[in-house]
Amino acid sequence: MQNPDARKQIEIKNLNLTFNKGKKNENKALDNVSFDIYEGETFGLVGESGSGKTTIGRSILKLYVTDSGEIDFEGQDVQTMKKKELAAFRHKAQMIFQDPQASLNGRLTVENILGEGLDQAGYSKDKKKRRQKVLDLLHMVGLNEDHASRYPHEFSGGQKQRIGIARALAVKPKFIIADEPISALDVSVQAQVVNLLAKLQKDHGLTYLFIAHDLAMVKYLSDRIGVLHWGKLVELGTADQVYNHPLHPYTKSLLSAVPEPDPVKEKARRVQSYDPSFEKDGQERHMVEVEKGHFVLGTEAEVDRYKDEQR
Ligand SMILES: Nc1ncnc2c1ncn2[C@@H]1O[C@H](COP(=O)(O)OP(=O)(O)OP(=O)(O)O)[C@@H](O)[C@H]1O
Ligand SMILES: [Mg+2]
């Protein structure tokens, strides 16, 4: 967090969510998840496929009904919001989706895709002004006037993701959930989109929840990082604490999978495997604050061991 006086924008407390409750394919996707996101920060959420990252994002936007727990946005409980409050909330909080192709309506031109967002925000019906606003949005994300009349399939993956970002920006949000916004892109394009997101954050004072598989990418963007495994947060701390001083064996295994740019270090790198079976032993585990702002999930004995191993 750049600003120590920053206010909490999002507060998530003891969130639980089960898909297909009571059925054979019951799936506990979120297990007692708690964390806060401060105004103006980027909170990175990492974990392997199926760990519950998207489920957290969608729960924040009230796209899912949770079993229990609380989600507050600027002090207001999201889950009990009525239609009118919810509409106002959905202008302030937007999501950039995992798959840019599937999230854009293929039958609309870019001008109309962005125009839809502008209409939702109650933007002027004056055609000229609206057109100008569409062009402003395109410039903001590094596209231009010629792109306005085209359809989504006429764009590259990176350009599509830029359109997704422009659409999220159309309603002038304060908070953006970026759900693996770069995983579907070429490595060369990934950096461009990351830089764009960072610039937009600076220019518009945005708060981000940035979701990714890859800890290396999250580290560059995030002020703080949460590590998710099987629907549980296992570690939470500043980017430096989690990346350079990890405590939980799962975080360590994720880090050991990140290639080193230095060939000597890369040669010495050993991938650490993680055996998650102990998580199912029925013992109670809590998030323990090991140093200021740095939390790890474990029993008392495990946390002591993690601290010893870190030294
Ligand atoms: N709509 C749904 N109905 C039933 N189960 C679901 C649904 N959405 C997700 N799940 C299950 O919940 C778990 C968490 O899924 P989620 O999509 O949140 O994972 P993720 O961390 O975003 O994974 P990925 O990195 O692959 O996007 C998975 O086991 C998934 O199969
Ligand atoms: Mg996902």
TrEMBL record:
Residue ranges crossing the lipid bilayer per the database entry: none
Listed Pfam families: ABC_tran, oligo_HPY
Gene Ontology terms, MF aspect: ATP binding
Primary location recorded for the protein, binned into one broad class: membrane
Keyword list, A-Z: ATP-binding, Nucleotide-binding, Peptide transport, Protein transport, Transport
InterPro entries: AAA+_ATPase (IPR003593), ABC_transp_ATP-bind (IPR050319), ABC_transporter-like_ATP-bd (IPR003439), ABC_transporter-like_CS (IPR017871), Oligopep_ABC_C (IPR013563), P-loop_NTPase (IPR027417)
Residues annotated as domain ABC transporter: 12-255
Membrane topology: Peripheral membrane protein
Subcellular location, record wording: Cell membrane
CDD domains found in the cross-reference section: ABC_NikE_OppD_transporters (cd03257)
Recorded family membership: Belongs to the ABC transporter superfamily.
Protein name: ABC transporter ATP-binding protein
